[in-house]
Specification:
mainly alpha; about 90% helix; about 0% strand; transmembrane; metal ion transmembrane transporter activity
């Protein structure tokens, strides 16, 4: 497998993973609103899942993008 094809494939995998993790809180909030109408409890779940999504985005940045930039600057 060529290096360019591997990079494009992995970039797509990272994009899809972060997009899915970003949309999980919205889908779960819709599900919880249909299941019960307790906005306060649903807000706590949304907050926790939003923190998880933010962690996925930050993890992607620090584990993939930042080391690549440091390697490129050498």
């Amino acid at each position: 497998m060529s290096s360019v094809l591997l990079q494009v494939t992995l970039a797509l995998v990272i994009f899809i993973t972060t997009a899915v993790a970003g949309f999980i809180p919205l889908k779960l909030l819709r599900f919880l609103n249909r299941k019960n109408g307790d906005k306060r409890k649903n807000g706590k779940w949304l907050s926790l899942l939003s923190c998880f999504s933010g962690g996925v985005f930050m993890g992607t940045c620090f584990l993939d993008i930042v080391p690549h930039i440091k390697w490129r600057d050498r």
